[in-house]
Design a protein that fits this description.
Blueprint: H1 12-25, H2 37-51, H3 59-78, E1 84-87, H4 95-98, E2 106-111, H5 113-122, E3 131-136, H6 142-154, E4 159-163, H7 172-183, E5 188-196, H8 198-208, E6 233-240, H9 241-247, H10 255-262, H11 267-274, E7 277-284, H12 287-291
Helix pairs in contact: 1-2, 1-3, 3-9, 6-7
Length: 292
């Protein structure tokens, strides 16, 4: 970690985002409560939040993303029949300890060995709400990734895969390979992701470019979620972060004014603004539908 860069490795972003969950938890009107977030973020997370430019002002999209994903996860396990949740690049996410999911749910947190070891040690005295498993794997290692997905797929009937805050740090070809390998497992029915547009990434780079030089933003496909279609995944739900922030009352300053002003733009531009960032549910398509 250098004086100019508070983040030395992409895994440090887990501490950064954990601090946002801690900030939300401290609110009397919290959208969610993660009592383990501050413990997991620790002093390193506090330091990142303190040194990252405009870090507190930019908390709202991360908080909204977490809250929206919580809603979708609970819907999948309570109403749509998911029996397994596969949390890719889980980082310091503690959903398996805080979400009200059935005890029978199989929850698998996947991440690099070092961050998994840190997380297990930090939470050694805590009890998860469901059947939690830790799987150590480098998701950019093709052989390891396929072996892991194969083991999970062979013992699962209906899975929801989560990739919160992961894809933006991967190259497009890595995202494509990941998507293909996930599709190879028939029980992996849904894939919950977040996605940003090239326009938004350029805006964020003006604020965080130097600070994120060790964890640069790499994935923001111009075609949006159509990127995933050749790999067997189809968008079935898009939740715009900006619109969700207004619904959840966690928006940027003057958000309602900007939404009102946007009504005067052409429809095409309105849709571009709407899709600057969002939480997306992708559904696995069968081979027949892919070919058709």
């Amino acid at each position: 970690m250098t004086a100019s860069s508070p983040i030395s490795h992409v895994s440090d972003t887990a501490r950064w985002v954990a601090m946002y969950r801690a900030m939300e938890t401290d609110r009397p009107d919290a959208l969610f409560r993660d009592p383990l977030a501050r413990k997991l973020a620790a002093e390193r997370g506090e330091d990142i939040l303190r040194r990252l430019p405009k870090a507190r002002q930019m908390a709202w999209p991360m908080i909204v993303r977490t809250a929206v994903m919580d809603e979708i996860i609970l819907r999948a396990v309570h109403r749509q029949g998911a029996d397994t949740v596969v949390n890719l690049a889980a980082g310091l996410d503690a959903r398996a300890y805080r979400l009200p999911v059935p005890p029978s749910i199989r929850w698998i947190d996947v991440d690099l060995p070092d961050i998994q070891a840190y997380k297990k040690n930090a939470l050694s005295g805590e009890r998860p709400v469901c059947a939690l498993e830790y799987a150590s794997a480098d998701l950019t290692d093709t052989a390891a990734r396929r072996a892991l997905f194969g083991r999970i797929g062979a013992s699962t009937k209906c899975a929801l895969v989560i990739a919160e805050g992961l894809l933006v740090y991967l190259r497009p070809e890595q995202v494509g390979d990941l998507a293909t390998d996930l599709h190879a497992q028939a029980p992996f029915r849904w894939w919950l992701i977040d996605i940003a547009s090239p326009r938004l990434i350029k805006m964020l780079e003006r604020t965080w470019g130097r600070s994120l030089q060790n964890a640069p933003f790499l994935f923001a496909p111009a075609e949006g979620t159509r990127f995933f279609e050749p790999h067997g995944w189809k968008e079935i739900e898009f939740r715009p972060i900006f619109e969700e922030s207004i619904r959840l009352k966690r928006s940027m300053k003057f958000a309602r004014f900007w939404r009102w002003l946007g009504r005067f733009y052409p429809k095409r531009m309105q849709e571009k603004f709407r899709r600057m960032s969002g939480v997306v549910v992708l559904e696995r398509r069968s081979e027949a539908r892919r070919e058709g």
